[in-house]
């Protein structure tokens, strides 16, 4: 065999071996890429994303799109070829697997966590929107979870409204722990509660739950906990907050998780509850968590969300303040970043966009 032919054959075999190795060898990385965007003013799977009943609503044109990111599953392991391709591609990001799934978290656990965060973000989005419109919202302390095998199991249930502990009214979730820990383990503590079913019925009727029944629970010692030489008492619940809205607001969107759509849900609700268009018919997308007070928080995957928004046709992107530096470093052509810290910032910027006064918009590049 001629030397040149042998060299070419050997090189081909080496290349094949390298390609096979690249496909077979797994690496501890995961990929993020742009996901779909959804107009909160429009429909998803044939039904409105925002459904409001019991209150007058107004037609809204334009777009207020929430954005998403696709990620590889927790159980999927990329090979070397996929990782290299992802690193070179502009519309994807390759990150360490533990960044997306820390502490060995399974895909099922991650999905459940994202669903819980998504549900909470919807609740906060409603509260923030109504507060921005000066529409009263009733807030109450509730039982979020009951620890299995704890003194509260079978006596308190998730969703029960906690009116008082030992006769002292509670207004914040932290009040419950403070009052319980005044006891020694083995002592009785008296909860005044409204059962979850009664509370749910009151919420459906658009009124705050009333009344209350007393439940006596014997405290237990917190596992391994000592404070100032004294054992700390617990009853085995986690307290949280729930809200009663004056009318019904449903957010219908499947197969989406996490808290990052909060801001856009809030703005969609505001637009539907006020005359005229918040956007003036413009295509605006955005992202950001939202809390009950209307503060906008940072999210992950900002660069992928920018790409997804621009691909969908967005011209303006509402960007959380803490994400501005990353977003400004890699902004798709034709997309204007708008810095937001609160829901009020967002509504004011939308007014400017609607009026065509975009030169004064708060920019990620100018601070």
Radius of gyration: 26 Å
Rough shape? globular
In round numbers, the mean pLDDT is 85
pLDDT under 50 segments (min length 5)? none
Largest sheet: 6 strands, mixed
Q: What fraction of residues sit in β-strands?
A: 25-35%
Order of helices and strands: HEEEEEHEHHEEEHEHEEEEEHEEEHEHEH
**What is the structural class?**
alpha+beta
- Estimate the helix proportion, in percent: 25-40%
User: How many helical stretches?
Assistant: 10
Order the strands across the largest sheet as they lie in space. Answer: 6-1-5-16-19-20
**DSSP strand count:** 20
Separation of the first and last Cα atoms: 69 Å
Could you write a compact summary of the structure shown?
By secondary structure, the chain is α+β, with helices and mostly antiparallel strands. Helix content is 33%, strand content 28%. The strands form seven sheets. A six-stranded mixed β-sheet has the order 6-1-5-16-19-20.
């Amino acid at each position: 065999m001629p030397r040149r032919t042998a060299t070419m054959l050997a090189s081909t075999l080496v290349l094949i071996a390298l390609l096979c190795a690249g496909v077979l060898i797994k690496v501890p990385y995961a990929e993020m890429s742009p996901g779909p965007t959804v107009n909160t003013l429009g429909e998803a799977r044939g039904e409105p994303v925002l459904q409001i009943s019991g209150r007058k609503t107004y037609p809204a044109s334009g777009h207020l799109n929430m954005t998403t990111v696709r990620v590889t599953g927790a159980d999927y392991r990329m090979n070397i070829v996929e990782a290299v391709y992802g690193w070179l591609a502009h519309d994807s990001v390759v990150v360490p697997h533990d960044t997306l799934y820390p502490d060995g978290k399974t895909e099922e656990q991650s999905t459940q966590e994202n669903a819980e965060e998504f549900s909470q973000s919807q609740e906060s989005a409603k509260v923030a929107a109504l507060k921005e419109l000066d529409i009263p919202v009733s807030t109450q302390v509730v039982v979020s979870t009951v620890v299995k095998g704890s003194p509260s199991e079978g006596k308190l249930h998730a969703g029960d409204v906690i009116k008082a502990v030992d006769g002292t009214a509670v207004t914040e979730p932290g009040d419950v722990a403070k009052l319980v820990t005044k006891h020694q383990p083995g002592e009785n503590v008296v909860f005044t509660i409204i059962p979850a079913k009664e509370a749910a019925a009151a919420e459906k009727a658009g009124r705050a739950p009333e009344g209350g029944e007393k439940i006596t629970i014997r405290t237990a010692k917190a596992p391994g906990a000592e404070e100032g030489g004294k054992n700390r008492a617990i009853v085995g619940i986690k307290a949280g907050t729930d809200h009663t809205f004056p009318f019904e607001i449903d957010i219908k969107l499947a197969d989406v998780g996490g808290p990052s759509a909060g801001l856009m849900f809030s703005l969609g609700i505001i637009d539907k509850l006020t005359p005229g268009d918040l956007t003036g018919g413009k295509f605006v997308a955005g992202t950001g968590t939202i809390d009950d007070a209307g503060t906008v928080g940072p999210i992950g995957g900002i660069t992928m969300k920018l790409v997804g928004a621009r691909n969908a046709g967005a011209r303006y992107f509402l960007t959380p303040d803490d994400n501005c530096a990353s977003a400004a470093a890699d902004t798709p052509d034709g997309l204007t970043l708008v810095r937001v810290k609160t829901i009020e910032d967002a509504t004011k910027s939308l007014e400017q966009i609607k009026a065509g006064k975009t030169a004064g918009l708060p920019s990620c590049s100018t601070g």
